[in-house]
Design brief:
Elements: E1 6-11, E2 14-19, H1 29-44, E3 50-55, E4 60-62, H2 70-75, H3 77-92, E5 97-101, E6 104-106, H4 108-114, E7 118-122, E8 126-128, H5 142-151, H6 153-162, E9 166-167, H7 168-174, E10 179-181, H8 186-198, H9 202-217, H10 220-235, H11 238-249
Helix pairs in contact: 1-3, 5-6, 9-10
GO molecular function, one term: isomerase activity
Family: Belongs to the enoyl-CoA hydratase/isomerase family.
Organism: Verticiella sediminum
């Protein structure tokens, strides 16, 4: 498929969705629809074992909604619904998703970056959720819903009410990002981590994502039921047998997702 606001690239088991609206990769309804379409394609693509979500260039991962674009402002509720759909899709996507949160990560960029499973910051990363200073209600299902579960009530209020820039180290201390990588090493380290994740067991990743999400979307009891469900599936899988055999034989396992 041909896209206008994103690029999709493949390297081995890693597929990368690049938000491509320089200079700051601001979000429009079309970009969100293209991300959803790309995720649908990558879910069906058997060769894809890990997805990276990145921004073009190094200035910004994503600086939020493009408030200068008429089609963004005119979209209204549908824009909100698209934003929520992308956040939900990233979180529930059955394969691991890594966000390359390099440079500015603001507003809607904050929402979609945090929805990913592993969040890699650069030393250049700056995070802001300052909607209150634009008169905007954050409504993509992150800042007012998930964020409290991610960082706790007090830290969520600090971020939302102060609305100040947060550097990469401060974001790491809050648990917003997984790790901070020196800018000069960023591309190589991102590739290394993504390649490692692509080599993991697909069934186990599905179990991890679905069960962890159920902890706050539903109930602990629902999460425990999912744990039992996935344990039964995993225990009968060829991948579990392959993983144990590879451990005993001191080699890398070759998982097939079955």
């Amino acid at each position: 498929m041909t896209y206008e606001d994103i690029r999709v690239e493949h390297r081995g088991g890693v597929s990368t969705i690049v938000l491509s609206r320089p200079p700051v990769n601001a979000v429009t309804p079309r970009l969100l629809m293209e991300v959803l379409s790309a995720l649908d394609d990558l879910e069906e693509r058997g060769e894809t074992r890990c997805v990276v979500l990145a921004g073009s260039g190094t200035k910004a991962f994503c600086a939020g909604a493009d408030l200068k674009a008429d089609n963004t402002l005119a979209a209204g509720d549908s824009f909100r619904d698209l934003g929520r759909a992308v956040v939900d899709r990233l979180e529930a996507f059955p394969k691991p998703v890594i966000s390359a949160m390099r440079g500015w990560c603001v507003g809607g960029g904050f929402a979609i970056g945090l929805a990913c499973d592993v969040r890699l910051a650069s030393t250049t990363t700056r995070i802001r959720t300052g909607d209150a200073y634009l008169g905007v209600i954050p409504s993509w299902g992150m800042s007012l819903t998930r964020l409290t579960h991610f960082v706790g009530r007090n830290r969520a209020l600090d971020l939302l009410i102060l609305g100040e820039d947060l550097d990469a180290e401060a974001a790491l201390q809050m648990g917003l990002v997984t790790r901070v990588i020196p800018e000069e090493d960023y591309d190589a380290e991102l590739a290394r981590i993504a390649e490692r994740v692509a080599g993991g067991a697909p069934i186990t990743f599905k179990a991890i994502k679905e069960t962890i999400r159920a902890q706050y979307m539903y109930t602990p009891a629902a999460a425990q039921a999912l744990e039992t469900h996935w344990s039964d599936i995993g225990g009968a899988s060829a991948d579990m047998r392959e993983g144990i055999a590879a451990f005993r034989e001191k080699r890398q396992p070759v998982f097939r997702g079955c």
